[in-house]
Design brief:
By secondary structure, this protein is of the alpha/beta class. It folds into 2 domains: 9-172, Rossmann fold (3-Layer(aba) Sandwich), CATH 3.40.50.300; 202-271, no CATH class. It contains 11 helices and 7 strands. It has helices at 8-22, 44-49, 66-78, 96-104, 106-114, 134-142, 184-193, 203-217, 219-226, 237-247, 254-267, and strands at 27-33, 54-59, 82-85, 122-128, 161-163, 168-171, 175-176. Strands 1, 2, 3, 4, 5, 6 and 7 form a 7-stranded mixed β-sheet that branches. A hairpin with a 4-residue loop joins strand 5 (161-163) and strand 6. The longest helix is centred in the N-terminal third of the chain and has 15 residues, at 8-22. The mean pLDDT is 91. The structure holds guanosine-5',3'-tetraphosphate. Guanosine-5',3'-tetraphosphate binds at residues 1, 59-60, 62-63, 87-89, 128, 130-136, 151, 174.
Length: 283
């Protein structure tokens, strides 16, 4: 995926564009990564919504820890928020989106029908940070392969509405917001999954954080993949990385070992995982 270089001017522009587009829709499809649902969203969206309904789509659920995905769905739904978890690579799973949108907008649609509009459309758009799967969802919903302009705001063409199932219509370009870079832990969650450019943190920092996280949360996977003994599982993250460097035969090249660990996590070699829980302190 193309990486992005955000700076305040750019952010302002992105924010203005998204706010402008939100005005045109009945409902917002907020796309986040199921492996880090809070860290992969931009909190500013909430104020930009201005009471407009939204569906939180926890995408890439195929890569996430299913038990934790359920905890997130329960937490969101407990907050009276519509949330679903999907794997956008499977069109079948997206069928619930138009149905849910119509359900949420039932009153508004009934009013339109009462005014004589026979098939009132539901206008929606996908919004999210780069790489969460907005374009994949959009393309699947409209059953076309539309060229999306990449992760850059400011490329506003003539906007079009694309037909999806039911009466759903989607704006042809997703709204792109930026992730929260400022918090170190959030940044490392984003970096480990590849949601932000690899240049933001060093591989070493990300891998050390990741090793600690997997040790505390998914020790069995770590032990299995790298054939670590029970005693080796007691090592701290830095010593574990040194050990892995030896095991990989990388002769003291720690950075190379860090990169390999990160790649293994991203490829799912360490199984399905979720890097945060609803009860974690969210900054
Ligand atoms: P964006 O518009 O939000 O920036 O994201 P985009 O749809 O481009 O998706 C980013 C990457 O995530 C793509 O992979 C895409 O295939 C993948 N992806 C999207 N949804 C899912 C999902 O539900 N599960 C999984 N496992 N992957 C998903 P890529 O490697 O960048 O491109 P490509 O391999 O598809 O060519």
């Amino acid at each position: 995926m193309p990486s992005i270089n955000w700076f305040p001017g750019h952010m302002q522009k992105a924010r203005r564009e998204v706010a402008e587009k939100i005005k045109q829709v009945d409902i917002v499809l907020e796309v986040v990564d199921a492996r880090l649902p809070e860290s992969s969203r931009n909190p500013m969206l909430l104020e930009m919504l201005q009471q407009k309904p939204r569906i939180s789509i926890l995408n890439k659920a195929d890569l996430a820890d299913p038990k934790r995905t359920q905890l997130w769905l329960d937490a969101y739904r407990g907050d009276d928020r519509s949330a679903i978890a999907i794997d956008a690579q499977h069109a079948r799973q997206l069928k619930q989106i138009p149905q849910l949108a119509e359900k949420i907008l039932a009153d508004k649609l009934a009013r339109k029908r009462a005014k004589g509009i026979r098939n009132p459309h539901v206008r929606a758009m996908c919004i999210g940070i780069p790489n969460v799967g907005k374009s994949t969802i959009l393309n699947r919903l409209v059953k076309k392969n539309i060229a999306v302009t990449g992760n850059r705001p400011g490329v506003t063409k003539n906007q079009q509405w694309l037909k999806a199932d039911g009466n759903l219509e989607l704006l042809d370009t997703p709204g792109i917001l930026w992730p929260k870079f400022d918090d170190q832990i959030i940044g490392k969650r984003l970096a480990l999954t590849g949601a932000i450019a690899d240049s933001v943190f060093t591989d070493d920092d990300v891998a050390l954080w990741g090793v600690d996280y997997f040790k505390a949360n998914y020790p069995g996977e770590l032990q299995r993949l790298y054939k670590l003994s029970d005693a080796q599982m007691q090592l701290n993250a830095a010593d574990t990385m040194k050990l892995l460097t030896d095991k990989f035969g990388y002769g003291g090249e720690y950075d190379r070992a860090a990169k390999r660990f990160i790649t293994d996590v991203r490829k799912g070699e360490l199984g399905r995982y979720t890097l945060e829980l609803p009860e974690d302190d969210q900054q």
